[in-house]
Design a protein that fits this description.
The chain is an alpha+beta fold. The chain contains two helices and eight strands; from the N terminus they run E-E-E-E-H-H-E-E-E-E. The strands form three sheets. It has a three-stranded antiparallel β-sheet, with no helix packed on it. A hairpin with a 5-residue loop joins strand 2 and strand 3. The longest helix is centred in the middle third of the chain and has 11 residues. The radius of gyration is 13 Å and the shape is elongated. The chain binds zinc ion (ZN).
Length: 93
């Protein structure tokens, strides 16, 4: 059972906690195992970038992050709208 995940712009793949790596060209979807999909869901809806490292072990295959031009908060690369200000975030390299 796999779940199709659309990668956000700039994200080239996912490294799961159990060592499984998914890679794709930017903008492509990937098919991940169901257990990984739930982990991704937890991360991508978790809110802020700190949560990813706080939970430990989950590292996404991205070096970029996004910054809110209004409040300056740094978001994960797939967070395109600031959860605080509800305005589009900008890619910060
Ligand atoms: Zn903001």
């Amino acid at each position: 059972m796999t779940v199709r995940v659309n990668l956000p712009p700039g994200c080239e793949g996912l490294n799961m906690q159990d060592g499984t790596k998914y890679t794709a060209r930017p903008g492509q979807h990937i098919d991940v195992a169901e257990r990984h999909a739930s982990a991704i869901e937890n991360l991508s809806t978790g809110g802020d970038a700190g949560l990813v490292s706080a939970k430990g072990g989950h590292t996404f295959g991205t070096k970029k992050e996004r910054e809110c031009p209004q409040c300056g908060w740094l978001w994960n690369v797939w967070t395109t709208v600031c959860h605080r200000c509800h305005i589009p975030t900008l890619v910060k390299e």
